[in-house]
Amino acid sequence: MNIRYISNTQIDKNAWDKCIIMAVNGTIYAYSWYLDLVCEDWDALVSGDYETVFPLPFRNKAGITYLYQPFFTQQLGIFSNNHLTPDIVEAFLKAIPEKFRFAEINLNSFNKPDEKRWRIKHNANYELDLIESYDRLSSRYSANTKRNITKAVKNGITVSNNLRPDEIVKIFRETRGKDFPHLRENDYRRLLRLIYHCLHDQKAICYGAYTRQNALCAGAVLLFSHHKAIFIFSGTGSEARATGAMSLLIDRIIQDSAGNHLTLDFEGSNDANLARFYGSFGAARTTYPSLRFNHLPLHLKAMTGLAKILRRMIAVKPGNSKR
Fold first, then answer.
1. Angle of helix 185-200 relative to helix 165-174, nearest 10 degrees?
2. 94 and 225 belong to one structural domain
3. Tell me: the pLDDT tens digits for 94-103?
4. Tally of CA atoms within 13 A in the half-sphere of 279 that contains its CB
5. What's the total number of domains in the chain?
6. How many other CB atoms sit within 10 Å of the CB of residue 181?
7. What contacts 206, CB < 8 A, 6 or more positions away?
8. Considering the entire predicted model, what is its pTM?
9. Residue 267: which residues within 8 A CB-CB, separation 6 or more?
10. Range of the domain at 215
11. Same structural domain for residues 182 and 250?
């Protein structure tokens, strides 16, 4: 297999996006325009006439070039127009250039790396197939979720899908965002540019839950691509948990999309409480692999402080305030 390393300026973005459109495991995260919006820099590995591609988001720290997982990209890895065998995945992983000395990246659920060769962690995701009617889907909600929806209605919570993403980001920053000090102003600007880009291309919807006083208490952003509605970001205020607002908001999303060839992708989570919450809507657990390697010279490997700095630079998805 002829795998080529291509720097960003040399990538044929039209051919790249055509691959992602046609890929058996395509996702919105892997489009060139999406990567351009969320990454500082990214290069790629490509085989054939862009039949199989592997984006390589990277940064430089203390003279070290390393691979990382950008915010707002749950899964990347290897994408292909053809069946992805373990041999193909292995060939691409081995082709990662030596200049990338450290990595902590997420592959996608279609990538099956050799766990004897690579350091792999399996992450949980939750997905709900929306092909059935709303009545059938809602009948599978847990008893607690049904109670929360009833509570939200009694508390006068209403849901709209006509609000600005800035409002959702604002409510997140004022609450859960305080637990993510590594999220800088530039990260929030990237997020808003991404959402507005998707709204302009009719690939996004923003949902908000409001109190009786018409105050926003919970919000969520959905991105649409490849027959998936991805729960990319959310924020909840202090009243949301007490009123069951997020349960009602998700119920509205399911109600609006039921009966379509669409999967609601909750984007996580390894957190047991969030996993229970997503599962309470009837969502099924799936997994995707994370890969980590450390090819630093021995004298740098011994510098635990440097390793910790690099690991802190690896993006962890914010927005785990969905309850």
1. 150
2. no
3. 999 999 999 9
4. 13
5. 2
6. 7
7. 161, 162, 163, 164, 165, 168, 195, 199, 219, 220, 221, 222
8. 0.90
9. 74, 125, 230, 231, 232, 317
10. 126-285
11. yes
